[in-house]
């Protein structure tokens, strides 16, 4: 019954001003989620894991907090885009994770275990001890290559003092047989200068240029917590993100979250103002009208009621996991974002 309704909805959406014929489409979800300090309970003397809110708590409560945090993250991921795809996301880019082990615990949570997620992760030199990673359903996506792009920055003008941040993660693979390139980002925070985020944008852009140099029509998706909105010049001028679909040129990236931001929707809130730092952008090859291969159908912020602070001064804000030195029982200080991609079934 659901399958029939789903196909009708997609047919209507794709058939404006033409004589519609009912067609079936495969639907997959591509998502990104800032997991807000997903750290374990182990004191690793080789890393700065004291940046973890869990490690700041008394030893007796760490295990229970960790278990609840993992359960919460798995619950969210399992529901992203499910209403249309009837499946958990095929791809999930994540940031603010400590190591491979916390990711292994995450994909083995009851809410996610049946989806058989694989993990692409590299340790990065970030001063907070946090990394980026890519989760993928093994039945849908087959990685063929992965690497990291190191972002080299310095403290002010002193070239002898590195400012260590997270690497950008690059993964290439076959999604249902189609080659797609993914780049997962977590750019320097708003506590850093804009120049550092512009440097991060230039680094991401160089990866895109390299891919497009080999194949101008490559399918590329760039996702992340950019700590800049769709309107910032790091996105528009350096990464070449464009908010109007019909105006995207071959080397530019379509940013569907520009329109979403202009509708007053965000992924983070600060002093009663919404912003949209979490975004997914894509190359022009993913916004064509030929659905014989995967194309973007729609983009959204996943801001279900259970992810929102239920009461008080911050009612409606993302229900963050940690505040005032304790665990709130919440999820993350960011809402996740996602896009649906669809392909016509022969």
Describe the structure.
The protein is α+β, with helices and mostly antiparallel strands and 346 residues long. The protein has a single domain, classed as Endonuclease/exonuclease/phosphatase (Deoxyribonuclease I, Chain A), CATH 3.60.10. The protein contains eight helices and 19 strands. A seven-stranded mixed sheet has the order 5-8-9-10-15-12-11. The protein is globular. The N terminus is likely disordered.
Q: What brief labels describe this structure?
A:
Deoxyribonuclease I, Chain A; seven-stranded mixed β-sheet; 24% helix; globular
List strands and helices in order, with pairings.
Elements lengths: L1 H12 L11 E14 L20 H21 L2 H4 L5 E7 L2 H8 L2 H4 L3 E5 L9 E7 L3 E9 L4 E2 L2 E5 L5 E8 L2 E9 L7 H21 L5 E6 L7 H6 L2 E2 L10 E2 L2 H6 L5 E3 L2 E3 L2 E6 L11 E7 L20 E2 L2 E2 L9 E8 L2
Helix pairs in contact: 2-4
Provide a brief overview of the structure.
The protein has 346 residues and is of the alpha+beta class. It is built from eight helices and 19 strands. A seven-stranded mixed β-sheet has the order 5-8-9-10-15-12-11. Strands 3-4-2-1-19-16 form a six-stranded mixed β-sheet. It has a two-stranded antiparallel ribbon with strand order 6-7.
User: What is the string of helix and strand elements?
Assistant: HEHHEHHEEEEEEEHEHEEHEEEEEEE
Q: Provide the CATH architecture.
A: 4-Layer Sandwich
Number of strands: 19
Overall 3D form: globular
> Any idea how many domains?
1
